[in-house]
């Protein structure tokens, strides 16, 4: 293949390969192989080392640690290329704003016909926190890259709700996650809030400090499409996460939204 410029990687790309170094690459990975690993990783946890060694076995090549490093470099560049292509397409179609994805990602929720009867609720949404995606504070310190996404609510916006609630004192259950502004004795809703242990974070507060990321707080539509995500940092499911998420989604999607929350009784009081 003739070179169209002085860059070897450009010649390799025309031939369907991606070099593993920016200048004078000695190794190249096929785009088809990178595409295959990208698809596998999207469906399950696929460690790069296992994938590369499997390729070595298929080709009868002895495993070598440097091949894993070469593949990792090529795959990182491949992901950057895909993101750049997506950004250019979104820009050409005027879809760079995060609100566009939120408003149009779910065809069932977003599609509206002219003169169709108005529904009581335009969209049905649910929010909840999950503590499975944890990361220790000392893990990943060397990697300072930030993942650009219009799915995630920024930490600054979430933290702006930290002091949004007045200090009304702690409830008898020691709940630090949600504050009931006007608890009523004997009220079934208040009793439910007191009994619901997921709203109690006093006993686990010290544990959360070990994690830089203690989980995620997500909002999805009734069809399972992600509307927004917020990182939960060094804490359990505090009230600031649903408050920030509610404001963000409401400002983008408007009114007549129906929200589902497994501790809605506590959040309604908040």
What would your notes on this structure say?
With 270 residues, the chain is α/β, with parallel strands linked by helices. It has 2 domains: 7-93, no CATH class; 121-164 and 187-268, no CATH class. The chain is 40% helix and 15% strand. The protein contains 11 helices and 9 strands. The strands form 3 sheets. A 5-stranded mixed beta sheet has the order 5-8-7-3-9. The chain has a two-stranded antiparallel ribbon with strand order 1-2. A hairpin with an 8-residue loop joins strand 1 and strand 2. Helix 3 crosses helix 4 (65-92). The chain is globular, with a radius of gyration of 24 Å. 19% of the residues are buried. Pfam families: KDZ (PF18758). This is CxC1-like cysteine cluster associated with KDZ transposases domain-containing protein. InterPro entries: KDZ.
Write a compact overview of the structure shown.
With 270 residues, the protein is of the alpha/beta class. The chain has eleven helices and nine strands. The longest helix has 28 residues, at 65-92.
Give the SSE layout.
Layout: H1 8-14, E1 17-19, E2 28-30, H2 31-43, H3 48-59, H4 65-92, H5 98-104, H6 107-110, E3 123-130, E4 135-136, E5 152-153, H7 155-159, H8 188-195, H9 205-208, E6 211-213, E7 215-221, E8 226-232, H10 240-253, E9 257-261, H11 264-269
Helix pairs in contact: 3-4
């Amino acid at each position: 293949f003739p070179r169209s410029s002085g860059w070897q990687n450009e010649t390799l790309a025309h031939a369907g390969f991606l070099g593993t170094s920016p200048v004078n690459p000695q190794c190249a990975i096929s785009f088809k192989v990178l595409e295959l690993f990208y698809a596998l990783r999207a469906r399950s946890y696929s460690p790069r080392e296992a994938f590369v060694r499997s390729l070595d076995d298929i080709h009868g090549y002895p495993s070598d640690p440097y091949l894993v490093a070469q593949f990792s470099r090529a795959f990182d560049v491949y992901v950057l290329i895909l993101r750049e292509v997506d950004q250019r397409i979104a820009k050409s179609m005027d879809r760079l704003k995060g609100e566009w994805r939120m408003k149009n990602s779910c065809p069932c929720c977003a599609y509206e016909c002219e003169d169709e009867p108005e529904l009581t609720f335009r969209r049905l949404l649910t929010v909840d926190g999950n503590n499975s995606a944890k990361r220790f504070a000392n893990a990943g310190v060397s990697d300072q890259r930030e993942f650009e996404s219009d799915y995630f609510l920024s930490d600054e916006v979430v933290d702006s709700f930290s002091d949004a609630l007045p200090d009304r004192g702690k409830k008898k259950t020691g709940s630090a996650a949600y504050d009931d502004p006007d608890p009523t004795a004997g009220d079934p809703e208040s009793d439910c809030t007191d009994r619901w242990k997921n709203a109690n974070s006093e006993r686990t507060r010290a544990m959360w400090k070990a994690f830089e990321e203690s989980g995620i707080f997500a909002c999805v539509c009734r069809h399972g499409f992600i509307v927004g995500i917020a990182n939960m940092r060094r804490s359990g499911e505090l009230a600031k996460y649903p408050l920030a998420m509610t404001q963000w989604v409401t400002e983008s999607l408007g009114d007549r939204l129906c929200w589902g929350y497994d501790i809605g009784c506590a959040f309604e009081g908040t």
